[in-house]
């Protein structure tokens, strides 16, 4: 069935028909001069229209409510057969408001768009109660429209009434009740789909009816705490309807024919004619506001702002006729949503709505409202919270880019209202609600300039626990702190009132009887006190919390809040004051005792210790004078701070169990290590060593901490060596031996085998430099013995297993470099440490895909060859190495030759076994062996080996294995061979 309109030819204006009588329209929304229509005038107009319609009955098409799928609003579009169809594309802008293309850059990115505000409302205002919805366009469970039977008499009566009633009255409205919130949202979405489908089917009046029925839902405040979310859901449909109307007219205006503009304007007027026939105030307001931007097709661009201002003023006055204050304020919210898009610069529109809200505050506590809340068992605190989203948005629109004149005018208006008799009565909670919204909406600079006055307002607000209708005072105290926290230079130009303001705030907070309110206020003000007040004020804050919470035994309930307060104080206070003052607060430890839950107490300890560590890092990273550094070093040995941080670190350490995650262990280890690094007794090395010994007993379960202690003790021994410049006395050598003994005892208690190996080697260096040769041997023996326990694979940070071959190669290289200068023990024979290392390496299971074993064996040969030199490449002061001890002893050289032969043969055997596996790697190994023979061996006697290896390289050096690095090595090797064998170099 076609949905195109088929028009009958009208006989109006023909010769055989009288001209229809027309009456002048004196009251209509489209007229420039507007006046409110009285009931008598409306009744007379209805009678006149009825008489005129009866007189011209023979010449005019009679309009009924039986549309039969045809839409009379489309008659104006008959002249255009090519009107594009609006599909179900995205009809609502991203910001959620009815939007024309931006005509101004007034709204910048810092303006809070409606989408953010909308989502906050939907997330906050939910319900578990049953909801209901009234409509004649709902679908049943099978997806069909609900149909309701009526008898024949009722149907005839309906048909007659339809001739008298306006076109949009529905007599078959049905209510669906007992809906959960998801079911209710689903039904709202069905109405939205029905509206779009009706529009696509060219059933414009049906779409309008759906929009009207949706707007009527907003007149009901049953389940009152869900009303803000219901407003959002319903206005989404109205937004969609408004965009459909606007886009249709916009497409018509873009058509290129003579009558397009006239047709568009006529269609606009038709829409407003229909809206003016809606008898109920609320749907009439919402529908007109939703399509308000189509006025732009009726007015000139130069008159646009003035005309819109008049229209918004009229709609603002319409809202005064709505009795329910909750319904009225959300009407104002919707009007301001439209206004901020169409005419954002006009502060007069928003100010008029704010002024109307101020003047209607007494309605919030009217007997009818109290009766409604009593029936729904909703208290006034919840009821007041329903107004907050609307107030925030309206004030946001008013205050955005407003000058001081507007801000002051709003403030003076509220101040004048606050002095009225209602402000002194028990129902001043409604004014406190307005005050809270002003605190949130005003810029922080305005708040600080008028802070004494705001505090005076707050002092006159009744406590929620005393008066039934009072607004919670603690919310005002909290929000004013949140506003001030955004200012970095708070009190910079108003230092005199700084202490007085804090005293007033303390007076207000102490007047709160509920613990929840008290803690909430201090949680907000803690940041201000830490940022802008003294250490004494911070200490008083902590002590006041302890005094308030300890007798009531309620501190366990508010543990997270107490942790937040401590975090703010630590974060903002520790950076302002020297840590000796800050961490010496006498109320800090009693405050920590309020944390009885272990996890919270550990977090509190982490917070304090982390701040302590960061203060050290900041002090060491800045360019300070030597005197400042010395003073900082002296303060780190303060016994009060030392005992406090040690106590906190011990709490963190003792919390570690077998189930503790590795990340948690690493974090605690980092904090404890940072604390240990922070303690410095200057030249009192014995006290420093005693501190390390005590720390070892306190933190014995953390490998990283134990390893760091060994590192610090080794550093202490080297500082002693540096002070005496290598010339030890009995006292200093005894102290160094004590340090070495500390390391030797501590290292075996570490579970991480790689860390132990590294610490053994570094400790042996310390012992060797201080000429403690027996201790050096002990460390090296332990390291070589421990290599037997090194597993072929270790778990990495990502949980995967990785081969230890590369670590072993690097570690053995460092170990061999150390053994060069370590003299042999005469009781143990030649190279006894090297022999032990060699035996351990032979037993190690190398990865077959790794080349580490080959590289290690090459290093073993180089070590042996180095030991044959008359003088070693480097020495340690006051230590006689093997070059001095043996002085080219033949037995010593013979022992070296024996091991060279064995290791070199093993090197060749390893090459032969793997020569067919990885040709690229084996080519590099062959070049390495050739260079080894030429550089440190007897090239003439081993020329046959060089010749065999070179032939193997030439045979297997295929293009696919060639690389730039390999070519470079080959060229270097050829030059080396030519220099070593000048007669045979060419043939080779």
UniProtKB/TrEMBL annotation:
Belongs to the VPS35L family. The keyword Transport applies. InterPro entries: VPS35L. Its main location: other. Keywords: Endosome, Protein transport, Transport. It is found in: Endosome. GO terms for biological process: endocytic recycling; protein transport. It comes from Blomia tropicalis. This is Uncharacterized protein. GO terms for cellular component: endosome.
